[in-house]
Amino acid sequence: MKPELSNLYINQSSQTVNYTPIVSNGGKGNYPVRTSRRSHAERLEESLTKAWEEAEKQQETLGAVSVSSQHGVYLEIKGQAGYDLITKSLENTTQKVRICNIKSEDDGEEQKVVSSTVFVPENKRDFFVKKLNKYKETETEEKVIGTIESINLAMVDALWMSDKNELPNNTPKWCEVWLMFDMKEVVDTIIGEFFQICDERQIQHKNQKIVFPERVVLGVRANKQQLSELQWLSSRIAEFRIMVTPTSFFEELSELDQRDFVKDLVERLDISEQSNTSVCLLDTGVNNGHDLLAPLLTDENMHAVDPSKDVYDIANHGTRMAGIASYFTLEDKLENTTPVVVNHFLESVKLFDRSDDNQRELYGYVTESAISLAEIQNPETNRAFCMAITAPTNTHKGDGRPSSWSGAIDSIISGANVIEETDIIRKLMFISAGNTSVTEISESGDVKTAVINHAIEDPAQAWNAITVGAYTVKYQIPEELIGTYHPVVEPGCFSPFTSSSLTWSIKWPVKPDIVLEGGNLAYDENSNFYTELPDLQLLTTSKDAATGKSFDTLSMTSSATAQAAWMGANILHHYPELWPETIRALMIHSAEWTDAMKNACFENNPPKRMDYRNLLRTCGYGVPNLSKALWSVSNRVNLIIEDEIQPFYKKASGSITSKEMHIHNIPWPDDVLLSLEDKNVKMRVTLSYFIEPGPGEVGWKDKYRYPSCGLQFDVNNSTEDQDNFLKRINKAMRDDEQDKGEVKNDSSRWVIGAYNRNVGSVHSDIWEGTASELSQSNHIAVYPITGWWKLRTNLKKYNSKIRYSLIVSIEAPETEVDLYSVIKNKIESKVSVENRTTVSTEVTYRK
């Protein structure tokens, strides 16, 4: 594993340019070069022959009949370290040659090796021989065979997809077996054949199944030798995985056993007593007498907006949120035996007991009052505010337009609600996207349709908040319900409970911003009945601990929001000096989409910009990765820029016009990138800032009247010098994306594209190309677009400045190269020359 390195901070990097608006293809594959096709093919052919011979010996050892037409061999095909492996042509489904899995692993020398396990039937053993012969004589199979470094007989390790440390040795463990099948085949027949093999080999199995497209998941209790036997005796194995402990295991324990688990975890807690970071829950109160919450939430940090009410949880929501906001995944902490480090404490402000306790028009006030209570109690604390209470779509339009509640939140986060500028404290706030109900799913008959039609709930349309939607990796059904119920969505897909902004106009922000675990839903096809199951939810703390019940469950966008707040608090703890705008940027910058999300949202292959719009407005920017937000590594570097810009000014004539734009010259390691030539690299850029909401309902009808101003970024093309880049940016300045005079950038380089990203107050996109191209694309412009600061001259905000955070990262994913040290040295050299002193470029990090 590469050593974790602090992110790099570029201070005072911008070049300010007077700004006057003027009206108006991706990288190649990284493949190894073979000097002799014939010798390469002959070497692979020799390995292939050896693999078949070893397979026949193994069959004889097991006492099985010789390999029949229904059997064959599993081959492990590896690419060369640091290079791509073309896997598409490794299978032919009509010939029953099937790819079981594809994975990428470190080779021990910090290079990635891509490998694929392929099943080849006995009667198709010439499948690869034919490809090798063609490759010898012509270039027909060059892009396939040329990328293969080795062909070997696949062992259990090649099929094991969980953590290697979880692979059972002599002691049996409950494992998942993922079997392949064609959609035309009868799944129960395949399962029966597999269970017969298990019975013959005396391998214990569960009488349950989970069916996904072309995969069925079964459970067996086996050691490594027994898994190997299953591999040799079944032609259906696609993967082996460790079977996770279901949530219901803890929830269904006796009260005594629950207390034992709690006691064990309490003894392993390592709480940072000097922490100045909290997760502040704006919810229904918390019962802090729970042994897992008491060390983190003191009585002094519990409040209620209504002083006539107590601070405790009657509604059974806030306490469950607290468990996840404290431990992220409580099941993992309970199962483990290692110390559990907690870097933050909790605060709780009770907004109300039930969602109908307050008039809708008071929600903004209630929220502001709640935040004030926490800040008055602990004025110096760095907080991640967490609010998983929203108004159902039947109480507001759900069209993306700001409401009084969301407007108040934008004001609170930006500090616009504070009269004195010196008193402004900007905030980091997480809000749940709102939940698609089981009724909606049942009535629509389709999860995707239900999620599309359920718009993000009020106040989650707030521009400055991090709106959290839900995805899920949960799919386990209790054994007694297997065969009756199955999970509605596959692992990695968006949760059936999440909501989207697909019904909004394109001018409104991308929501949700990110997604985290929100659980799954179970479905009975025979009765057409949907139900929520504990095993498909997250384990958390119960409000009834005082009466003996320690655990409960939580799901939907509530659990996802609690996880997001936990993650935000951890980044705040490690980097306490960073702005809230920067924490938001880091979380979004670290987020990635899963393959399951893409498969569910993309309608075209290759995907078009509309497909990315669907993906963005369903899953946001994806699942945030705490490690990637906190750290750089040698070949993936995060650069952090915090700056402020004055977008407008008042001319002598009295008119208000644009004032300035910023140019950031990014210290790319030019020599290193040029040496990599046409190898693929990625650059990601994320721009985050807080808008001030336009006062008064009249301004909320137009997005340019709602925000104080907007900012956008652009990067020079590899063929542009800075002068030509500046001309193009000024020419491209526009008030509306539909402006016919818009000048297009080289948009093919960007995954999301300007049209999708340039909405809201956070913009993120991924550039893909060659290293040599990126070496020349080192100028990033940040420029303003209009807003009410410019248009409402009577408010006299035209001289105001706006802060922004810019995260820029570079990644050479499959190349052994040290980008970090070169960039760090370039930054330090520049700072040293300018200031005649040595200044640390690493972001201040708290252990």
Describe the structure.
InterPro entries: Peptidase_S8/S53_dom, Peptidase_S8/S53_dom_sf, Y4bN_pept_dom. Residues 275-622 form the Peptidase S8/S53 domain. This is S8 family peptidase. GO terms for molecular function: serine-type endopeptidase activity. Pfam families: Peptidase_S8 (PF00082). By secondary structure, this protein is α+β, with helices and mostly antiparallel strands. The chain folds into four domains: 5-30 and 633-835, no CATH class; 37-159, no CATH class; 164-242, Alpha-Beta Plaits, CATH 3.30.70; 247-619, Peptidase S8/S53 domain (Rossmann fold), CATH 3.40.50. 29% of the residues lie in helices and 23% in strands. It has 25 helices and 36 strands. Strands 15-17-14-18-19-20-22 form a seven-stranded parallel sheet, with helices on both faces. Helix 15 (556-574) crosses helix 16 (580-590). The longest helix is centred in the first third of the chain and has 25 residues, at 37-61. The two termini are 20 Å apart. Residues 65-70, 355-361, 696-703, 732-743 and 836-840 have low confidence and may be disordered.
Question: Roughly how many Å apart are the termini?
Answer: 20 Å
Tally of separate helices: 25
Sheet of most strands: 7 strands, parallel
Helical content class: 25-40%
Overall strand count: 36
Organism: Anaerobacillus isosaccharinicus
GO biological process, one term: proteolysis
GO molecular function: serine-type endopeptidase activity
Domain Peptidase S8/S53: 275-622
